[in-house]
Amino acid sequence: MSYPPQNPYGQQPYGQQPPPGYSQQQYEQSHQATQAGMPLPPQAPPYQAAPAGQFGAPLFQPPGGEGPQLWDAGTLPANDNVNPYCFSVDLNGAYYLQKGKMIAYYGEMRFSGIGRGALDQLLERNFNSPLHASDWVVAEGRGKLLLADRAYDLNSYDLEDGNLTVRSGNLLAFEPTLQLKQSIIPGFLTLIGTGKFVAASNGPVHFVEPPVRVDPQALVGWADCPAPCHHYDHGYLHGVLGGLRHLTGIGGASGEEHQFEFIGAGQVLMQSSEALMADRSVGVIGAEPGIPGAGVPHQQQQHGGGLQGLGNLGDLGRRFGL
Amino acid sequence: MAQFRLQGSKVLAVDLAGDTVKARNGSMVAYTGQMGFKKLSGGGDGLRGMVTRRLTGERMEVMEVKGQGTCYFADKATEINLVRLNGETLFVESDNLLCTEASLRTGTSFTGLNGMASGNGLFTTKVEGQGWAAVTSHGPAVILRVSQGLPLRVDPGAYIAHTGNLHRALKSGAGWSTLIGEGGGEAMQVEFTGEGLVYVQPSERMTLGGEV
């Protein structure tokens, strides 16, 4: 197959040329902060018609004129979505990303596991989550880096001197200007500082203002200072009949007795499905008293020999004295 | 002349007027008019192709669809990308090839050790000739152009197809740190150099190289 002899992008260094059809103004608009500290994710740029037959490439051209778009190092957006499922990072320096989320890159890059000697200084500043270290890598170099995760929706978020807590499996990448810390709530990571990060959600992400109760599987994260707590609906499990129902299982449960409740000022991020990332085993938090999720049992079992198999409804059996 | 068009992004509609297309076995979801479906043994490349496919492990269960009307194809709600070939060659993973026009020849091509290390097998499927081919991808495919001086490196789990005059080589970042479990997670990359297009899906298959 033949390509035109001169190549319009080949001589250009990275990032010199704004991508066609994606003006700076548009870029800024899509990145406009809607709220201090927690801007909404930018919209993906609209799909462009392909440069028709420009490269002699076998591309689908439907009669409407709108075809798939060709990308290369010059036309890929800088730190923005290529489509709802793919994010392009304009790498110049270092970037943290979760293992296995790179799908392609132009340029020269090196991926090194966290815990390597040369990166220790960077890590001291930014990476304060030793349990998750084995899931993360640092990409170093120059070029365009494409990230994607199981065709989940990707969004980038700009933090300005803010904080955001996100489920550890949903966080894909973040700038080294942010600090990553482990949340007190097991399985969540907190980002603090100013910078951009990329998170995945199954289906588009929704922002909800507390007070709100969300399904645990739909929760992606929260920003600013809502207080997260568990909420159990077991009103109908009260009394003798309810107790019987709970013990015997007759009558069943709706499966929605347990929610997360958020109160306070901030925003809660939800995904539009209840599909979760497979949790990776990250080990146990240091066994010290007073640390939630640590390997220490926080209370001695008082009711030895009590009924087993009561489910996890707040150890309800104990309240019945069983 | 079979007419390929997309019905939404996940269903391929093919208008047939007495001609045939080759499609993955069992991918028909609906049809109007009169259609006949015939399983082709061994990928439909004749006896030689059948033996080759059996030997190379690049299996394709292919059926021949012939008739009058419109036939609809889909595969596990994956996105469909239409590729028009005018004498070029399309290299595609056999798992991602959904449907081809009868005028296209399919065969297998040796990718060497690159393919094996990436977990995609030693061989890949080659489609050549004049006509339409439909390629599936998990999530809409991103089409990346490779030109002189701008090589592209792709995660083998996200690679689905390429066209053009491309050379592919395995680039390994694995070293001693991979062995002690502190690898970069991206130890295997396929490097494309030359001139052409690479189709990448926003998702990764499980590959041998994916976990190191």
Automatic annotation (TrEMBL), chain A:
Transmembrane segments: none annotated. Residues 1-15, 22-38, 46-58 have a biased composition (Low complexity). InterPro entries: AIM24, AIM24_sf, Trp_RNA-bd_attenuator-like_dom. Residues 1-75 are annotated as: Disordered. Coiled coil: none annotated. This is Ser or Arg-related nuclear matrix protein. It comes from Kitasatospora phosalacinea.
UniProtKB/TrEMBL annotation, chain B:
Coiled coil: none annotated. It comes from the Bacteria. This is AIM24 family protein. It comes from Kitasatospora phosalacinea.
